Amino acid sequence: MERVARVEGDGMAGNCCGGSCGSGGGGGRPNGGRQADYRRTLRLALLVNGLMAAVALAAGLETQSMALRASALDFLAAALTHGVGLWMMGRGLESRGWATLARGLALTVLGLAVVAATAWSATAGTVPDAPVMSLVALLGMGASLSVAVLLFAGRRGGLTLRAVWLCARNGVLTNAAVMMAAAGAWTMGQGWPDHLVAAVIAATVLSAAVTALRQAVAELRAWHAPADPTGLGKGA
């Protein structure tokens, strides 16, 4: 019980995907109708982000836009966050640590892949199809904005719901950046705005992945650390 209690106070770092977003219960364990609302919130966010990850990836491959592929990675990161949150409900600290570790490793590998692909595309001088790129980015912005509006009431509520709202808000900002990249590529006839935005988005996801890995290691260490039989801690 002590090990479970130790993680109850951790919560989330107030960001979208850096910590175990969605793995808590909004500052406490949800019960009854609150738990049902919490599950519906995560399922909605998971569905929207999962669908947009697939759409953005397909469009990025079709238009040769690295910014759209990076946007797909950002949507996938949010979807993984909420999927892990649903799976983690009712589970203990060790399970949460392993799930956070797996998510962090997956995002690290995918983020590095996007960085490598962006570098290759920049070397090749690839210019994306800006009109289609901007339309898909607009769709992604609308999807994220819809979720953000639905979750606006929870922005100052429990930690979990606030983190889900932050994911949606960040999705709006990410796709706004993709639209700016499309405008830059169209007006200049060059691909560097697309590559620049892709690099920034990928770096943001990688930073969140590193944070998740650090948290996972800390949680697993806390789980395997010997319990203090006195209950007084090191400050006694």
Task: Furnish the topology, listing elements before pairings.
Layout: H1 2-8, H2 32-63, H3 66-88, H4 93-124, H5 130-150, H6 159-188, H7 192-224
Helix pairs in contact: 2-3, 2-5, 3-4, 3-6, 3-7, 4-7, 5-6, 6-7
Task: Give a structural overview.
The protein has seven helices and no strands. By secondary structure, the protein is an all-alpha fold. It has helices at residues 2-8, 32-63, 66-88, 93-124, 130-150, 159-188, 192-224.
The biggest beta sheet reads: none
| Main structural class | mainly alpha
What is the number of strand segments?
0
What is the N-to-C succession of helices and strands?
HHHHHHH
Contiguous uncertain segments of 5+ residues: 1-14, 20-30
Alpha carbon gap, first and last residue:
21 Å
Count of discrete alpha- or pi-helical segments spanning 4 or more residues? 7
How much β-strand is present in the residues?
under 5%
Q: Radius of gyration, Cα only, in angstroms?
A: 19 Å
Q: What form results from the Cα inertia axes?
A: globular
**What percent of residues adopt helix (DSSP H or I)?**
over 70%
